[in-house]
Amino acid sequence: MRYGRLWYNNNMAKKGRRTSKKVKAERDESAIPSEIVAPRPYEPSSRSYFRIAVAFILATVILVSSAAYFVFYGVQISVKPERMPVSAEAIYEVKENPLSVNSIRGKLAALEEEKSVVFSARGGGKAIPDYAHGQVTVYNKSGRVQKLVAKTRFLSEGGILFRLREAVFVPAGGQKEMEVFADEPGVAGNILAGKFILPGLSAALQAKIYAQSDSPMTGGEKTASIIQESEIKEARETIIAELDSALRKKILESFAAGNDVLGIAFSREILNQESSHAAGEEANEFTIKIRMRVAGVSWGADLGERAAEILAGLYPSGKELVSDNLKNLEPQIIKYNETESLATVRVNISGMVIPSADNPLFKPDNFAGLSKDEIVKYLTDKKLAESAGVRFFPFWLKRAPYSPSHIKIIIEK
């Protein structure tokens, strides 16, 4: 029995091996094609090309946008700096040959002049009596020359007495024209033209020597102006201005010989002034007389150099000067000593400073992480800016970046 099973198993194993070999051979024969065919190349569709192009463009846009963001993102702060005035006053002695550090080189001159001018009063006045006057012609029909002394009387037909102003001689058989004036002031002397007798002569001579006027006598009343204080003041100012101008011109001519003069300061002093009338008095005119002295002091480049040194010490580091008056200094003469050829001048030096770009308060680190309002508040609280503009990039940023290289500060001067 055991031997029979053994035989059966071996026989079946041999049969299985023959069957496997036969199947394998059949598979190998079926795998060999009857003829060899070359593979077709891959041909993508137009839709595939479109997708590739869109993907490339999107990738490029994303790449460029990312690069731009990381390169340009940040904040730009535009600052209109707060301006601060600085000033100082300096006193210098001006000499032609300065020796001390408080002296500057310059020329000195002083001139005096007096001027008197008559002005017409313009103030309102009132009518007051005056002496009427006019011209008469004296006829001498006698045989001898007739002398008429000053104040010889002439009597009009209406009984108004006039007098001769100056002595005259009337030739025999001739005539002479002369001026007469009323003996009494008033409008009564304003008479019409007519005949006059000379009551100082005898009755016989009065018929031969007499006077005749061809025009009325006038001037028996005049309007006297009331001199106003403003008129006297204006007259004084007019004379002072004229004297000042004339004396300055002479001093400028004396300084013109040198080419080292950069500027000239003047001072004036009223030595004496007089008025013929006081304010409130009645007069048609008044006279003002003034004596004045004008001093002139010139200066050269050393004044500007001294002033620049003083100005540089008026502001600390972190500030810079944006304007000054160094080219327009106007020294004032406060003392002039003609005997010692010395003048003392006062100079006002001024400028305008702003926070400089290297000011530590402008360091970008100070703005890192701040919002727009916080940036503006910082600048104004620190007195760095009058106003400020803040611009973020991109626009949706709300705070400044923490990287100093992405914080840009522009100071407008």
Spell out the key features of this protein.
37% strand, 27% helix, disordered N terminus, 413 residues, 6-stranded antiparallel β-barrel, alpha+beta, single chain, 5-stranded mixed sheet
How is this structure best summarized?
By secondary structure, the protein is α+β, with helices and mostly antiparallel strands.
Note the topology.
Elements lengths: L1 H30 L14 H27 L1 E8 L2 E12 L7 E3 L2 E13 L4 E5 L3 E8 L5 E3 L4 E4 L4 E4 L3 E3 L4 E8 L12 E3 L5 H6 E4 L8 E5 L3 H27 L7 E13 L9 E15 L1 H12 L6 E6 L7 E6 L4 E14 L16 H10 L3 E9 L13 E5 L2
Parallel strand pairs: 1-21, 2-3
Antiparallel strand pairs: 1-20, 2-19, 4-16, 5-14, 6-11, 6-13, 7-10, 8-9, 8-12, 9-11, 12-13, 15-16, 17-19, 18-19
Descriptive account of the structure:
By secondary structure, the chain is an alpha+beta fold. The protein is built from six helices and 21 strands. The strands form six sheets. A six-stranded antiparallel barrel has the order 6-11-9-8-12-13. Strands 2, 3, 17, 18 and 19 form a five-stranded mixed β-sheet that branches. A hairpin with a 4-residue loop joins strand 8 (153-156) and strand 9. The chain starts with a helix and ends with a strand.
